[in-house]
Amino acid sequence: MIVNYTQQGWEIITQRAHGVLAAQLAAHWAVKERPKRWTETLLAIAEHDDARTELESNILLTPQGGPLNFDMHLFDPEHCRCLSNFSLSKSRYIALLTSMHMAFLYKKEESSNPLVKPFLQEQAKLQKQWLDDLSISPTEANRIYHLLEWCDACSLLLCRNEVQPEQRDIEVSQGPAKRKYKMQQLADGRLTIKPWPFDTDSFEIQVEKRLLQQLQFSSNDEFKACFLAAPATEVVWKLAKT
Asked: What's the structural domain count of the chain?
C-alpha cells in the first residue's frame, strides 16, 4: 500500500488501486505507439502487483505500529512466485511483462540478498522462452515494458502527492520511445505532461483513497478493521495538453 502522512492522519492507497490508476493513464496512450497486443498490455499494467492484497496480508505494520509503505517491502520469494503464477494463468505475454517488472524492482537487492539472484536467473530463462514462444524480439519487449514502467512511475508520483507547486516540473520516467517526460501543475490546477504522449488533448483520471485518523495499531487485524471502516473517497486529476 501507498502511505502518505497528512495532518489528518494516514492516507492509504492500495497497491491494486495504484495499478488501476496506471492503467487509466495507459488507456489514453497515443494510438500509433500502442503495442499490438493492447488489451493484454492494459491488463498487465493494471495488474502488475495484483498479488499484494492488503486485506489478506499479515505484513502491514512497522515495528512502531504504523502502516507499512510499499517501498519498505524487501524481496519476498513467496509473493513474487504468487505474482508470477497469477500472471501466467492469464497469458504468457502478461507473465513476460510482469517478470520484467519484478527484475526491474529487485535487481538492486541482488548483491545484498542471496535469494534474489537465483530468482532473477529463473525469470531470465522464462523470459527468453516466452519471447521465443510469442515471437517478440527483446527490443520490442523492452519498448512495451517501458510503457508499463512509465505508467507505474506516473501513477506512483500522483499517489504519493509528489506533483510540485508553483508550476515547477517533476520528471516522470522514460517511456517506450526513451524520451524524458516531465509533469507540471498549471495555474488552474490541471496537470500537463511534456512531451504530451496521449491520444486526446484532455481527460480525467481518479484513484480511491482512505484516511485513517488512528496513527498506531496493535495488530494487522486492528489496522484492517480501521481501513474497512474508513470511507473511501476519490482523488481526481485533470490532465491537459498545452
From this structure: 1
The whole model's pTM is what? 0.95
Q: Which long-range contacts (CB under 8 A, 24 or more apart) does 172-179 make?
A: 173/149, 174/146, 174/150, 175/146, 175/147, 175/150, 176/33, 176/143, 176/144, 176/146, 176/147, 176/150, 177/33, 177/143, 178/146
Instruction: List the domain range (segments joined by +) for residue 49.
Output: 2-240
**Beta carbons within 10 angstroms of residue 20's beta carbon:** 17
**Residue in 52, 159, 158, 48 with CA at minimum distance from that of residue 93:** 48
Q: How far apart are CA 162 and CA 167, in angstroms?
A: 12
Tens digit of pLDDT for each residue in 64-93?
999 999 999 889 998 899 999 999 999 999
User: What angle (nearest 5°) sits at the alpha carbon of residue 34, between those of residues 149 and 241?
Assistant: 80
